[in-house]
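Office hours follow-up: a student asked to see two folded examples consecutively, so here they are.
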Amino acid sequence: MTKYRAVALFYFVLMGICFLGLFVLVTPQGALAGNEVLIIELEGSINPGTAMYVERGLKEADKRDAALSIIRIDTPGGLGSSMRTIIKAILNSPVPVVVYVGPKGAGAASAGVMITVAGHIAAMAPNTNIGAAHPVTAGGKDIDKTMSEKVVNDMASYGRGIAENKGRNGEWVEKAIRESVSITAEEAVENNVVDLVAKDIDELLRVLDGREVDLPEGKITLKTADLKKTYFRPGFRDRVLKTISDPNIAYILMMIGLAGLYFELSHPGAIFPGVIGAISLILAFFSFQTLLVNYAGLLLILLAIIFFIAEVKVTSYGVLSIGGLISMTIGSIMLFEDVGVSLKLMLPTILLIGGFFVVVASLAFRAYSAKPKSGSEGLLGETGVVKELIDPEGLIFVHGEYWRARAKIKLEPGDDVEVEGIEGLILKVKKATNREF
């Protein structure tokens, strides 16, 4: 009875924790009543994780009737699709959005340029810079020449259109995209790329007081002098998604997942590789939901694994292994639509994972085809010595044990014999020849 009470107590405690967690999740972080500014900090690369975080922050500001949203940005750039998600959220926000490049030493490069000029107000801290917006792959390499002109033209027209819509220098934005130019905060104000320079958020709020901004509903005058600052913090989900949304991380997770699951299937009972593999593969597929995945690339990687496994069972003289490496390389290059996995990461990963599959498959095949080492099956082919006259049955000593044996000919004690079969608990033997010592 005590056991059941303990189980019931554990159940109610668990339910209480779940309800408490639900209460915490749905409880507001602090009501904004039109007299607060919601500050969203956007640092690091622009990816689906950061885009979702900013999008949620702007929706939260609208939901709580915030007077102003500030996106404090410091970024080297990132994915074009994620940049467009953030810009769309800014342009359609009913709450005024200030994009502020800060603190001192920060920068808004590449995708950060377009996000900055998309704000209702664009501001920078002293000793910051903006520019260098030429499109590159996720690995930092220039886009292949055949695609470069198309991508650059598309990005240039997009950036120029946003800047001119906000009354800013669209010509300079286009130059930043085509020629990768970069300027300081003071130069950005002189060139009408941003509106003002402020050393920190407190000064920014003081300078903004009384300014007019254009919103979808019309012009409004900002009253920012006495606004209370509230920070919109990224949750655990935001931090995890930001990390695994990196194409390089997603690629590694997929490879670890495939390797771990294969090891578990070829060596049942290992458990740890299977657990790690399953978790990694689930995280990889979660990442694929936020990235544009080319399924032809994914199928080529799976085909490579099939080639590696087949290599140990088919005499191909290395052709299947070479085909597997080629298939995995092409699949890795094609895996993501708008980005590429870094070559510095891809090539060592392909060699390590390819070698891993070949080694594990070889070990599994050898274990499967190897002769049994124990039990009666392990006696086949073994040689022993007759201990008791065999006519037609007698006693032999083989494999460290005494066995009853039967032979077609008469065998004397001391004769060498070879086991050629088993019938129940009796061994079928023949006279051995050329026994090695």
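And the second, which I mentioned at the end of office hours:
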Amino acid sequence: MVYLDFEKPLADIEGKAEELRTMARKADGPVDVEKEAAALDKKAGDLLKELYRSLDPWRKTQVARHPDRPHCRDYVDALFSEYTPLAGDRAFGDDHAVMGGLARFNDAPCVVIGQEKGNDTKSRIHHNFGMARPEGYRKAIRLMDMAHRFGLPVITLVDTPGAYPGKGAEERGQSEAIARCTQKCLDIGVPLVSVIIGEGGSGGAVAFATANRIAMLEHSIYSVISPEGCASILWKDAERMREAAEALRLTAQNLKRLGVIDRVIAEPLGGAQRDRAAAIKAVGTEIAAMLKDLSGKKPAELIKDRRQKFLSMGSKSLA
């Protein structure tokens, strides 16, 4: 288990409980440590509840970036059957930061698209930490075109710090690819639902989340820029990221009140990383509910619904 900075006291308590149990297992004779270990477990549980009772925006950002949270691949493997990945944009190459293809959700055919960050050093480099290049967005466009042609609902799983800002990506038309992917989301005449499972960073997230219905995991974030980037621009000081996170209104709770998203998905106590199976199941339940809400709507209705959703954003206040 990887502990975040604010979880250090919790790490100490849980570490002591594990040490006691390890000593008991290694002892030659019977050693009764369970009572003391159970007391530490209770103390750790109470502290966990206290820590997660009211996380501030910066701590939520840290949780959203936790390396042990379930990633796109985990959701696809658990929630979808007959997943057939499709690769490439038919123009330049295949972007491993974006995965997608044909699948079945609750035994109904669909197209699923998402950003994959990877779960260790090798896979994170392979997937470019979930930061897509132009060919990734163009692959998503190709998949959405196919979904529209065959009348298949589209499900997107968003988890990216943002689009890749490298020189090669800019040379190949990064901003144009993001804009066209966003436009494609608006144009397709099939249900489009999106779940932000970790970070929803900048245009890289909007290009996948311009959907009829948008849900966010309780401790995920969705923002036009990272707190560090915002602090660097506004105050020339990235260390003011806590202040920036507060000002950006990037939490699921704030965005629900503003009308930017439609649903907040509760996470297990301590975040999705502490009970991955429960978090994945909760996401599956919400995807099913969102698709049911859109079932039976004609293509023109779906397009109008999607456009109106985004035109009305900003009309609500946090006050």
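Two things to take away from it. The first helix runs from residue 8 to 26. The radius of gyration is 21 Å.
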